[in-house]
Each structure stands twice: as structure tokens, then as C-alpha cells.
């Protein structure tokens, strides 16, 4: 016995598709990484308020004539020496550069978050457009299949009438040709639906194409009343809510901070420093000790002029003794030292580097201000175009509804005349083709209107995941 089971294919809703795309889309992930990079920028800016602390150590062995690091005497021997040092530095004043870099990092993070928001809106619209395209292709396929079913029924009835001699042979040939054309259109529609479905799966990064499908029912025109508002009200709301304007505004703020940071190089820099160092060596040293048994000796130091009498002086009677190195820990305390102080750096002339950097950032500020103005103009044009497109799509949809009603009446009338033999098969098939095309055109106008309406609602400030279909 073989038991097989096929899991039911999950049908994705539009909201699920958008949410999945926002979580897995590569462009969205890249924008999320950009936000994380700004966290690092903020961390580094805050780190500038902390002191710089560095520690160093060195170990060396000397052979031959060398200077003893403790006595600074030259001696020919082999010895091991080690040094250790800790330095700390802190910037007390540098033209408020650190404060402005922190402010710049915060603005940079807000700009990255806004770019992420814009990317999410773009991906949401892209997914919605592809999703609606799949629904449109499926709806057109259903229209063609339904109409071909009617054609097949008509083919059977016409064949009976031809066999009975009521209709000429040409009528059955006309309907057969029409049936063949419809079946070809069905194949093309199936391919279009499958291709659009695969394109949507690829957009969502879903590789299992065979088990991917969408929920193609329950989507209708849901108007939030945006079209009833004035176009200038929508434009002003878009300027307040759209990410592209806020991104341009943040770019201006970043450019202003860059100018301030560049100007900070005109000011002196005051720093404090502290250092601690110590050393160790295992080199032996030579010291002079007094002979306890004979502590002093007399030595001639000169002669009296004229008499020739010797002048004798008393000196300590010493002898040289080799002394080994002190213990490691003792030397660390014996040989240590500290240094501390302030350092003032006053810029006087640096080849106009600071002046050029300031001017360069001022030019960049003017450029970002122009870009902000251009972004506002572009948004006005885009929103106005979206408003006109939505209005035109509504009129097109209403016209398609009227055309379908008229074509349906014409088709029913032609069918009644054909059934009683008052018209030929060619005229009837032409009426049916026009009726079929009007249904397909209504589907196209409907989903085109839905998409353009949602684009306008998005500009009005409705979040992508809250759009209603």
C-alpha cells in the first residue's frame, strides 16, 4: 500500500507578502546595516570625551660595550634590560569639535533611519504592484476560461443546428476558429499568470516556486477619502511626512555640522598628559667601599714652591666591589618616574589647509540646500502627478464599468439573434470578443486604480502596512 499526501499550498496575502519582503529584502537589510554603522559613529564620537590611555613595554639583551640603564656608565658585559611605560592624555579644549561630532552622529543616525523608512516604502509599493499584477493576470485568465466554456457550449449547439440543416457549414467553422483563438489566449494568460507569480516569488526571495501562490480573493477598492481632499493639502501633508524631504533636511543639518567641525581647527587645542615609567636590568654594578681596617691613606698632592717641601693629603681608602642586580620588584619602585603637564597647540599657518576645508564644506552646505529645494519641487510634482493619475484611473475604471454593461447588453442581444438564426456566427463572435475584451479592460482599470490610489494614500502619510485593499 502506498499512501501519498500533498501539503496544501500556502496562499500569501498582500500584507504577509509586504511584511516578508521588509524582513528579507536585501536592499532593506543593507539600509539596516547603514543604521548600525551610525551606531558605531555615535560610539566613536562619545569616545572622544574619554582619555587616551596607552601602555608599552620593551625587553632587550645587550652584549659588549653598552651603557648601564641604571648607572648610565659604559661597561663591557652582557645584561638583560626591560622598560615599562603608561601614558594618558586628555583633550581639554579643541574648538568644541567633540561636542559637534556627537551632534553630527545623532543627525546621521536619524538620516539613516529615514533612508530605511523610504526603502521600506519603496519595497512595499513594489511588492504591492507585483502582487496586484498577479491578481490581474489571474482574473483575466478566469474571464477567458469562463468565456471559452460558453463558446464550447455554443459550439455543441451550433453543430446540432448545422447537422439539422438549419445553419450553414460556415457558422460551425467560424465558432471553431473562435474556440481555437480563445484556447490560445488561455495558454498565453496562464503563462502570464505563472511568470508574474514567479517574479513575485523572486522579489520575496522565495525559491520554492511550485508551492508559492497568493490569496487572489477579497481585494476590492477601499477608498480612505484621500481623493476627496485638495491636491495642495496632500502636497503639504507629504512634505511633512515623506522621508525624502526629511532626508534632504537632515543632509542640510549634517552639512552645517561639517562646517562647524571644520571651523574648530581655527581654535587652539589644549591637552593634559600624564606618564609613568620604570625600568629593570640584571646588569651588575661596581661600587666603592671604604676599607674598615685602614679607612684612610695619605697621598702627596703637590710641592711647596721655593722650599720643595711635599704637601700630603688624606684620602678615603676604598676598594671596588661588584654588586649584583636588585630584585625585579624592588627595581620597579626604585627606578620609576612620572611626568605630567599641559600642552597647548596654537594653529598659525598650515598651508591654507583649514581655510580650504572650511570653504569646501560651505560649498557642500549650499549644495545640500539646493538639493532640499529640488527635493521639495520633485515631491510636489510627483504628488500632483499621483493625484492626477489616481483621478484619471478612477474615470477609466468608471468608463470600463459602463463599457462592460453596454457590451454585455450587446452580447446578450447578439446571442439571442444568433440563437434564432437572425445573425451569422461571425457577427456573433465579434460581439463576444468585444464583450471579453471589456471584461479584461475592467480588470486592468480596477487594479490600476487600486494601485494608484494606494500610492496617493502613501504620500498622504498612511503607513505601507496599514494600507487597506
TrEMBL record:
GO-annotated cellular components: cell outer membrane; efflux pump complex
Record key words, sorted: Cell outer membrane, Coiled coil, Membrane, Transmembrane, Transmembrane beta strand, Transport
Subcellular location: Cell outer membrane
Superkingdom of origin: Bacteria
Gene Ontology molecular function: any one: efflux transmembrane transporter activity
Stretches assigned to coiled coil: 358-385
UniProt cross-references to InterPro entries, sorted A to Z: OMP_efflux, TolC-like
Family stated for the protein in its record: Belongs to the outer membrane factor (OMF) (TC 1.B.17) family.
Protein name: Outer membrane protein
Organism of this sequence: Gelidibacter algens
